[in-house]
Amino acid sequence: MKKERGYQISLRLALIGLSVSAFFSADAQCAMCRAVAEESMYDDAYGFAMGLNAGIIFLMLIPYFLLTALFLIFFRKQIAGFFKSFNEIH
């Protein structure tokens, strides 16, 4: 019973964390990309700087998606057991 309660709490915390992080804007740039983006802003190419930033964020997300997929592949039996026991409780 205590293990199941711990899973419920961790699931709720994960969902809260994901929903809170979805509201924040992420600005991720290396030093060289930032210099190019700042230089292009003086030429009224603000769209170029925003596109560069969006590309960096896109490239940053790919490893996280791959790690999530690997996690789901390796732990699918434990995850399925968790949801089965969760459905039995409710």
Structural class, by secondary structure, is: mainly alpha
Following the backbone from N to C, one meets helices and strands in this order, namely: HHHH
Mean pLDDT: 75
**Secondary structure: helix percent:** over 70%
Largest sheet: none
Our Rg estimate from Cα atoms comes to 20 Å
Counting structural domains, the number is 1
SS element count, helices: 4
Between the first and last Cα atoms, what is the distance in angstroms? Answer: 13 Å
Strand residue percentage: under 5%
How many E-type strands?
0
Oligomer: single chain
Low-confidence stretches: none
- Overall, the morphology is elongated
Describe the structure.
This protein is mostly helical and about 90 residues long. It has one domain (about 1-90). It has 4 helices and no strands. Helix 2 (about 30-40) packs antiparallel against helix 3. The longest helix is centred in the middle third of the chain and has 29 residues, at about 45-75. The radius of gyration is 20 Å and the shape is elongated.
Short synopsis of the structure:
With 90 residues, the chain is mainly alpha-helical. The protein has helices at residues 2-21, 31-41, 46-74, 76-89.
Keywords:
90 residues, 0% strand, elongated, 4 helices
